[in-house]
Amino acid sequence: MTEEVRVRFAPSPTGNLHIGGAHTALFNWLWARHEGGKFVLRIEDSDRERSTKEYEENIYSGLEWLGLHWDEGPQIGGPYGPYRQSERLDIYHSYADKLLNEGLAYREGEAVIFRVMPGEVVSFDDIVYGHIEVKSETLKDIVLIKSDGTPTYNYAVVIDDFTMAITHVIRGEDHIANTPKQILLYKALGIKLPEFAHLPMILGKDKKKLSKRHGATSVLEYKEMGFLPEALFNFLALLGWSPGDNREIFSVEEAIKWFDIKDVNKRASVFDMDKLRHINQEHIKRMDPERRLEAVKPFWVALDLPIEKHSPEYLAKVLEIMDGRGQTLKELAEYTDYFLTFEPVKERVDFEYTENVREVLRPFCNDMIKLSRWDSKALEEFAREWSANKKVPLKKIAMPLRILLTGTKVSPGIFEVIELLGREETKKRLAHWGILG
RNA sequence: GGUCCCAUCGUCUAGAGGUCUAGGACACCGCCCUUUCAAGGCGGCGGCACGGGUUCAAAUCCCGUUGGGACCGCCA
Prior knowledge:
RNA-binding; about 425 residues; mainly alpha; two-stranded parallel ribbon; elongated
């Protein structure tokens, strides 16, 4: 029988859930789900000065938005609680006392410090990075308990991972250098070591560690920018891992099925916004219409567009007609504003332009508006015939129509747009520009 | 400075000694769709950091060089 896989994500609430943290959480979560194990959330708030409730909330919201639900953690509890370091002080002290009594640690001031003996080779086999070893004399003594009575990271993490029965410690590569120190502690305590798997770092475009300078500081900002959680998930999963077979766009379920911690690579990767946008676009295309509509609504509202004046069917049609255009929900909302109201069109088109095209468009529109059938096919057929008869290039009609009706040079096929806008609305808009009559 | 880690197109990656004149994706650049592109189709550019080994054979293994990065707090 094999023991149940137990992994944890242990952020400190001294900042928002950023891309790096989300990436680490994601890989832990994937491994737990793939193995049918448990994903534990532990809040490392031993730095009481910098930890805040707001950051803690941001971390919860960020994880939830990404769909990384945890099996044990603060609030929901679990058999290995408490899950907040600030509530586990007595545990840290009892193990520290043990080391003190055995003479393996000493007091200096109020602090408890572990004595590192020279002449030892500390090594471990990382699932991702392979065999790593360092000589103990390159390590300094390790502070276990700070003078204020709170534990240090390197100490608390060992006690917590052990007492929470964590089987795989999956974290950022920046922790490799800490691992030998922690191993010394595991050995001194005589407790079982977990498996270690370090993850490659995510760098900014300048190849430096991702930070505020690189933009978003919270994953929730990606939500506001119009990214889908499954797209960010997909993108993040691709940083340091790939399912092979040239598969790049996949669902969360597929990732769970295909993921293996052993397949993670060692090379740090650069966060590429263009690729994220592309993956987001692919996921928007794959969404079912109802969900897509619900996802775009808030962005229309943010633009003050009157969604309440239209039926859900019409709104869904609007998104359908966009047929893959737009890389974010925000763009999709912006690109379709003219379907919800004429106002932005009025602002975008200057009167002089209408003067120039009126002569060509007027006779055409006067006939078009009276067409018996009002669908894109009939509209287009009519336009083609008209342009052939009058020896006017179709372009001379289609483009001005597009600009007058949508206020932009880019849109879906103009006859599809006209069909969806409807005869009355089209009539209203053309009349406004003085094209009819 | 010390210790540790990394190294395939600009970017994300496939590649676990021969099937690699290195595959895919993003980006970029063309062309087409002659109603636009922010949609779609087709094509192009572009990489194994360098030098030594090992081997019949190396992107793949070893060593070195160079270049990046991380850690060296009573932060996590």
